[in-house]
Specification:
24% helix; six-stranded mixed beta sheet; Nucleotidyltransferase, domain 5; 3 helices; globular; alpha/beta
């Protein structure tokens, strides 16, 4: 796993939002030299455009999400954001998984 990375997970309650544009808050995980920092940010409203803007302004390296429209997927890839989509699970499950490995697209998190 790459050190010094920022990962964003769009959430609905404590689960990965089923659709990128439905996220009501986000979990940001910062990994620096195997030190994990985690924070949750409440969004003013669900919006795919505003979330893309937030991802770019916060210099997020990786997005781990559920469903995402192709337009936003292509835009973020073009902006050099690593997008891992179609992932199902809770924020806690993703955080535990990130301590050892990145999840894969289409993965269902199980403990």
């Amino acid at each position: 796993m790459k050190t010094n990375t920022k990962i964003l997970i769009p959430l609905f309650l404590n689960q990965i939002a089923p659709r990128f544009d439905l996220a009501t808050n986000v979990c940001i995980i910062i990994i620096e030299d195997n030190l994990f920092q985690q924070k949750t940010v409440v969004l003013p409203r669900p919006s795919a455009e505003e979330l893309c803007y937030y991802i770019l302004t916060e210099k997020i390296d990786t997005l781990i999400c559920g469903g995402i429209e192709d337009e936003f997927y292509q835009y973020l890839i073009w902006k050099k954001v690593n997008v891992i989509d179609n992932v199902i699970g809770s924020c806690d499950q993703i955080t535990k998984r990130l301590r050892t490995d990145y999840p894969c697209a289409g993965e269902i998190m199980k403990l």
